[in-house]
Amino acid sequence: MSGTVADPTGITKPPIDDLLEKTHSKYQLVIYGAKRARQINAYYSQLGEGLLEYVGPLVETTPQEKSLSIALREIDQDLLITEALPDVEDTPKGPSGVPAVETDII
Q: Where do the segments described as Disordered lie (predicted)?
């Protein structure tokens, strides 16, 4: 038993090995999960303002569940789609000559 919950979720469930099969590398998994967790946080913070700019959690959640745990469960259940970024050489340059790269979770 870990903590006060008999079957913990979040970082330990789904297992990291299962999540790594859904991405190309562990670094992509970290960025993927962090971006989605920020979107979930933004969704909850905008609820009081009446704005619905972000999509809320796509899985059932509990009141005390962290946004990163929610994001990892969404990734594990294949509810999110990622798009590969173009190579830096193929990327159009911005006004300062720096590649203008954007990435979004759809």
A: 86-106
